[in-house]
Amino acid sequence: QAFFCLLLCIPWGSSCPPSCQCTERAGAKAVLCSSQHLEEIPKDIPKDVVFLKLDANSITRIPSNAFRHLSHLEELDLSRNAIEKIDRAAFKGVAAGLRTLDLSSNRIRSIPKEALMALNAKLRLANNPWHCECALQEMLWEARLDPDSVQDITCHTAPREEYVGKPLLQVLDAGVNFCSVHQRTTDVAMFIAMFGWFTMVIVYVICYVRHNQEDACKHVDYLKSLPNSQ
Questions:
Q1: Could you say which residues form the signal peptide (predicted)?
Q2: pTM, entire model
Q3: Which end of the chain is more exposed for a tag (fewer CB within 10 A), N or C?
Q4: What are the tens digits of pLDDT across the range 68-108?
């Protein structure tokens, strides 16, 4: 009876996910789920967690609102997983409170800048197969990167072969602006589209004029063929 009473007295919010270890670090709740073969983020993480380690698992995606209920979360380690996709609202609800976010050593090619828009955390993004383009450049302009890991953000793919395999910071320092290339491409596409529409209008006008001329000539010929009235 005392045992069941004790169970009832334990708040559900302090339960620990299976295969994880819940402990305290510097007087704050820490949940350690490292190397547990997890394929997704556990659903039953205690709401009062401050330090959350999910590194060295097999997580492939961070869905929207994945950590929204963790209002005290300050440090999040998602390194050494298989993350390929990060939803736009992945860090909604915790963005303002996070101090560090480790996404290094995953399979990330790009991150929606909306996912990091309100994020104040220091980011670790090294050792991912980044596609160096305007979206990545814009995202890095708004992010707070860990200085120790900046040099390890390397272009795995890029619009030009000469950038592949080089640190992104080195490419940008050389004066490359992926967004200006994107803008020029967009401008060329718009110019081609406008030229196409203009050509269609000109062709239509020419055909219309020719058709009217032919009708007028036929009408004149018809009038000439009529007998002259006295």
A1: 1-22
A2: 0.73
A3: C
A4: 999 999 999 999 999 999 999 999 999 889 999 999 999 99
Domain that holds residue 142: 21-176
Q: Do 123 and 200 have their domain in common?
A: no
Query: Do residue 100 and residue 136 come from a single domain?
Result: yes
| Burial grade of 6 (CB within 10 A; 0-12, 13-18, 19 or more) | exposed
Determine the Cα–Cα distance for residues 31 and 169; give it in Å rounded to an integer.
Answer: 34
Exposure of 66 in the CB half-sphere (CA atoms within 13 A): 22
For residue 88, the SS3 value is: coil
**Total domains, the chain:** 2
The Cα–Cα gap between 80 and 23 comes to 22
pLDDT digits (tens, 9 = 90+) for 105-164: 999 999 998 998 888 899 999 999 999 999 899 888 888 899 888 889 999 999 999 999
- Same domain membership, residue 88 and residue 118: yes
Q: If you count them, how many residues does the chain have?
A: 230
Q: Are residues 143 and 203 in the same domain?
A: no
Pairing of strands 122-124, 85-86: unpaired
Q: What is the pLDDT of residue 229?
A: 52
Structure tokens at 224: 């000439």
CB 134 within 8 A of CB 99: no
Tokens 């000439």 sit on residue: 224
DSSP state of 167: B
140 assigned to some structural domain: yes
In single-letter form, the type of residue at position 218 comes to K
